[in-house]
Please model this.
Amino acid sequence: MKSIKKILMVTAVLLSSVPSFSQIKNSVTESVKIYGNCGMCETKIEKAGNLKKVANVDWNKDTKMAVLTYDPTKTNQDEILKRIALVGYDSEKFLAPDDVYANLNGCCQYDRELKSVAMSTESTHAGHDHNMHAAMNDDDQNKNELTATIANYFALKDALVQTDSKATTNAATALTASLKAIDMKKLSSEEHVVWMKVMKSLTSDAEKISISKDIAAQRSMFSALSDNMYQIMKVTKQETPVYYQNCPMYNKGKGGNWLSQDKAVKNPFYGSKMMSCGSTVETLN
Model:
């Protein structure tokens, strides 16, 4: 009897250690090469790529091949590989940041074949690129992938300041479109890490504001949206100062935050009723 119980316990432990592929709905499976060396690399690669019930990564240190199993309605290969690159491991689509690679343990610092190829290609086309870049104007050179999203956020804030529900709807619609158009591959490492955390909530709140016609409901959703916009704008280089402001009266005294290009307080939660209620709590540069 004791031996049977022991067998059952061992079996349960073994089953609990097997990845739950069945928990990933509508899954697709793909194989990609990810560079690394050892068991420590395997742990970091799989931890970075895995998302509970969304994505699973199984990496082989001998072949350098990874099997990606994921729900395509919630993530994609690029998102998984970029998360892995951000902890130090190259793939054909994304190279790890040099400083992150440099901080890997000695045993984990693999031969960066793809980095060498990329540098060689850049050198070959340097002359052509120089001429092309010389023709670009300063606005094109300094344009950030998040520029349109940030501009649409400020338009949304201004519409709420004016207590204009229709203008708020239009601005939220434009914001939703710009959020969905963002190319994650063009974000900086810091921006991408934050973007992965806030993108779903940002898009959801913008969509809800765009279909609402009630100004009070729009303001309530704008509060949550602003908290997430703050997270992404905090790691994005700003051409001019952006002021993170707070109204202590909003939401029954719990307070509400927003971002503004104006240092003077123009309250989006109350509009003309309490236009100057609030203060700047942080300046982003």
Q: What stands out?
A: Strands lie at 28-33, 55-59, 65-70, 242-247, 256-260, 279-284. Residues 144-284 form one domain. The first strand starts at residue 28 and ends at 33.
